Amino acid sequence: MTTTAVQTPRGPVTRKDVARYAGVSTAVVSYVVNGGPKNVAPATEAKVRDAIRILGYRPNAAARALKLGSSETIGVVVPDNTNPFFTHLAHAVEEAASELGYGMVLTNSDGSLTRERKNIRTLAARQVDGVFLASCVFDPDVTELEASEIPAVLLNNAGSPPGFSSVGVDLEAGARAAVEHLIGHGHTNIGLAIGTNTGNQLDGREVGWLATLRDAGLPDGPMLHGPFTRPGGYEVGKRFLAMANRPTAIFASNDMQAIGILRAFHEAGVRVPDDMALVSFDGSLDAEYSWPALTTVAQPVQAMAEAAVRALVGKDRGEELQHHILPTELIIRQSCGCK
């Protein structure tokens, strides 16, 4: 018994090669690859998919994009892809976009406005269908977005930027909830560990912390600046410990800072929450698995991602500009003194 060897084409496999091998027209191959617009009999579809597998056919993405008028891809720019909050947010955006048939390209600006602008230009050159920009500043320069003429949504932004939809949270209200909780535990000297931002702009968490202390008739607590990182929090924690009149509680502006602060306290033998209470911001998984587990102001990552995707490529696309400011939630764990 003899078998006939499969004669694979020389060079790149084309749609015509698949059609010839499966014994169908090129139009039928297109229907199978694109999922329509016409239905294909199951047996015929199976033959086409077998041919695709055997020949190693890969559809031309550029040609498909040209035909559909869409690359079926969205771009995301984040300021720090090592930050668990932005990792979680990017993943939620990817999942929400995937349900609508879109792939995602993730870029990292690493806290640099220059790199942020370069990432936007790169995504525009790739002809993505839209961009989610989580800028490294609160009031981003949208010149590159406007020049690219690509639809965009400003992510993790509580402002109302002209020309673009935005999705964010009320930072001030979240900070108020954190500080009010610490005051409820009897603390009167509450410090703030606040992250540094590229534009040195006023952070809503600082505004909320200070306003809550003053509304309660308490003195302004000590405030220390440091990067939104674990090492940044570690250094800030050591500086708090060196104060002559150190606070009895600290509100940290993100979970990574708080974890760094925890390490500094552990090394110094300072017990949390017995000697020093701690509340943070973001609601990342790291906060849940630190020791003690962090009480934190959680941002609604899933809701933020879904609202942003709806505005950019979903049912709200093309509608009037929308500015979603979503509420935060105080997640009570052990670091604040609650048992």
List the helices and strands and how they pair.
Layout: H1 15-22, H2 26-34, H3 42-55, H4 61-68, E1 73-78, H5 84-98, E2 103-108, H6 113-125, E3 130-133, H7 143-148, E4 152-155, E5 165-169, H8 171-184, E6 190-195, H9 204-215, E7 223-226, H10 230-241, E8 249-252, H11 255-267, E9 277-282, H12 285-289, E10 295-298, H13 301-313, E11 323-326, E12 329-331
Parallel strand pairs: 1-2, 1-3, 3-4, 4-5, 5-11, 6-7, 6-8, 8-9, 9-10
Antiparallel strand pairs: 10-12
Helix pairs in contact: 1-2, 1-3, 5-13, 8-9, 10-11
Keywords: DNA-binding, Transcription, Transcription regulation
Pfam families: LacI, Peripla_BP_3
Domain HTH lacI-type: 13-68
Describe the structure.
The protein contains 13 helices and 12 strands. The protein is an alpha/beta fold. It folds into 3 domains: 45 residues, 434 Repressor (Amino-terminal Domain); 129 residues, Response regulator (Rossmann fold); 129 residues, Response regulator (Rossmann fold), CATH 3.40.50. Helix 11 links the parallel strand 8 and strand 9. Helix 1 crosses helix 3, helix 5 packs across helix 13 and helix 8 runs parallel beside helix 9. The longest helix has 15 residues. It is elongated and about 85 Å long. The N terminus is likely disordered.
